[in-house]
Model the fold of this input.
Amino acid sequence: MSEPAANPAATSFPAPTISLPLGLEVLRTYSGALVCLEILFGCLVWILVASSNVPVPLLQGWVMFVSVTTFLLSSTYLTLLITGLADRINTDWNFLDVFYHFIALLFYFAAFVLEAATTAANGGASIKPLTSINASVLCITPPRGNIFTVLTYRQYSINVVATIFAFFVTLCYGCSLVMGFKRWRK
Done:
């Protein structure tokens, strides 16, 4: 008995679908530049929040989780594109690009809002040592709102800058989502 002929459709896989160039050429595209900015600004958010000693862990824990996770995922994605390994993994990279940037945009928008809430909850409260008397007494100015955090001036300043960079990262992920969606729909 002769063996049946192998069905070519059953033994071969479709080629991966990717519209971005592979290798260092990806860095010359807007998408590659945006991924680099996502990594850079995301790393800055991570460093800034960590350097503020995370005074409000309930809110800033999510910011740390999002910034570290998206930093690692974006770095892995860029590494796959630069090394050309994305061409060896049979999947629809255009869809994964859109899906990843959508999830990252949602997570980073939430992180931006929580970081801004942490900063705004300070509400003008400040801690100043009273130097007019010899005892070590701190004067806490009451904030304007119902919910407040007591941040030192250094923590407040770092959180303001972290909020600004979190906004920039959110914009980068939004732009990457739009460009990825255009590539995916072609």
User: Anything to note?
Assistant: Residues 153-185 form the longest helix (33 residues). The first strand starts at residue 127 and ends at 129. The chain has one domain: 24-185. Residues 24-185 form one domain.
